[in-house]
Amino acid sequence: LCSPSVLKVDYDVCSNYGNWLYSAGIGNDPRDNRKFNMIKQGLDYDGNGDYVRLWVPELQGIKGADIHTPWALSSAALSQAGVTLGETYPWPVVTAPEWSRHIPQRPGGSPHPRGRRGPAQHKDRGIDFYFSRKKDV
Question: Which residues of this UniProt protein bind FAD (predicted)?
């Protein structure tokens, strides 16, 4: 058991504000036009969606990584999970074009059940693609 005098408070004003500004795309960044990709971050660090499920109970019925992109699910999958976009969970305010590569489409236009593409998607792109200004490769 911990006494109240031993509790650790993890709060750093500068780091927290800096991280929120960076996530919003208005922080200080040495690279031009870099955007924080929340979908990729979620897939990288919460692949099964457990953290989201803990803090967003409205999405608890969505299985696996699909929780990171509920708006991309079919109406049948949303219905099965008990989610109604615009009613029980809001539509996204913004959907960035960069997110699309993390939301693959199945034949017929519906998203892949795992909510992401395999690693072979950009196998022909070297590191220069991601760090060059010219993106029409």
Answer: 10-12
